[in-house]
Amino acid sequence: RKEFFEGCKAINADSIDGICSRFPSLLTEAKQEDKFKDLYRFTFQFGLDSEEGQRSLHREIAIALWKLVFTQNKPPILDQWLHFLIENPSGIKGISRDTWNMFLNFTQVIGPDLSNYSEDEAWPSLFDTFVEWEMERRKKEEETKCIMSSDTEGLCAEEQT
Description:
By secondary structure, the chain is mainly alpha-helical. It has a domain at about 55-160: Cullin, PONY binding domain (Recoverin, domain 1, Orthogonal Bundle). The chain is about 65% helix and about 5% strand. The protein has a two-stranded antiparallel ribbon with strand order 1-2.
């Protein structure tokens, strides 16, 4: 509640209409890389339960916040990342601040095909697990396409090239 009032004061909005009138410019401002980074980092803190002294986000909260914060400029790898988090609930208790912050860098450095990923880099171990999981998922998907292709055409897609 306190943060809401401070935020309204910071944008000079004293009513719902005032907030609504400032919203388009706030969205434009959030597209600036440095402003987005500030918003992104704030989002982690916002998601913590301060009364419980939480230091990491519950997995479900982190997923919801990633969907929210990337509403405008969704990284190509986001859907796969969220799918990974949803499919592996027992292995992922929570998302630490370090993992949260590094994910933004991860989305900027690693291409959608994960070709820029290197295990030698200092990424959180959860990213290593994600990349391994995603590469395996893609391999299975390709094998399924190959089997389906061989049933209908007699050749796997790989054999055709």
